[in-house]
Design a protein that fits this description.
The chain is an alpha+beta fold. It contains four helices and four strands. Helix 2 packs across helix 4 and helix 3 runs parallel beside helix 4.
Length: 129
């Protein structure tokens, strides 16, 4: 399992965990426009961080556009996840992270990648506090 891959285990698909994450209480969140990041610590899991990507149908009616944005977010995460993974492994912590797209405009992959870097660094900073 390479550092620059995004395998199945790194995708969050447990209904129970997703429910907990958005049920309030244990999860923390912040926004770096156009992404809202919701994350919470989890006990068990085979990977340091598992992610969920969400793009609202209300923002983009066409599935093609929604899928494009999801692909951009996953790619930005895949390329920059080592900013966070190293910190998590050092602390022996595991996280479940949701990336929710807020804008109703498409943005460039490069711009999204910059925002993703900021978001991942902010998550690792918040872990230490």
């Amino acid at each position: 399992m390479g550092i620059y891959t995004l395998c199945k285990a790194e995708r969050l698909n447990s209904k129970i965990q997703i429910g907990k994450m958005f049920g309030g209480g244990v999860s923390k969140s912040f926004s770096i426009f156009p992404i809202r990041v919701v994350y919470m610590p989890v006990e068990q899991g085979e990977v340091a961080a598992s992610i969920l990507v969400s793009v609202s149908k209300r923002r983009f009616k066409r599935a093609v556009k929604r899928n494009r944005v999801k692909r951009q977010i996953r790619e930005a995460y895949r390329k920059n996840k080592e900013l966070l993974i190293g910190e998590l492994q050092r602390r022996e912590q595991r996280l479940a992270i949701a990336f929710i797209y807020l804008s109703d405009e498409l943005i460039s992959t490069a711009e999204l990648e910059e925002k993703m870097k900021i978001a991942l660094v902010r998550i690792s900073e918040k872990l230490s506090s």
